[in-house]
Amino acid sequence: MVDNKSSKDDTLVRTTESHDISDTIRENIIKGVDAFEKIQPQYAHSISNLQLDYIQTVKNTVENAISAQKQFASIWNVPVATTTAATSYTEQFARQAIEVINDLTKVADINNHLAINAINAARENLRIYNRTVDAITEFNTNAVKAWGSYSTAQQQAFKQ
Length: 160
Prior knowledge:
Shape: elongated
Number of domains: 2
Order of helices and strands: EEHH
Strand order of the largest sheet: 1-2
Radius of gyration: 33 Å
Oligomer: single chain
Structural class: mainly alpha
Largest sheet: 2 strands, antiparallel
Helix content: over 70%
Number of strands: 2
């Protein structure tokens, strides 16, 4: 008998004559997957929090940069042009900035849809893979049973 003791808890997985090595391996692998399953939500939550922190940091950086530029302009008395040409330039710049932001928003939306579709396709592929493994396992089990029946019949035929 072989005792395998887990370092995290006190459960034993024993290998005996009635509990062969393949059962031990299966149970230990399932135990490892279950451990990952328990920590996965924490991992996803941490990643989500990191993303939200990055977003807030970008917003704060933009706010501080604009505020610093305004303070610099007021301290150094940078003149604000009020001529027709300057106003036209300012309006054109504002329109182009809005257009760029709108285009970036559309690109982000398309990218989001593509990423979600790719994740959904990966999930569907895992489902298909799982069904395929089940079908192959069933086929192999039936083949082994058929071979066993054939082999048994052949042995009985030779004994007679």
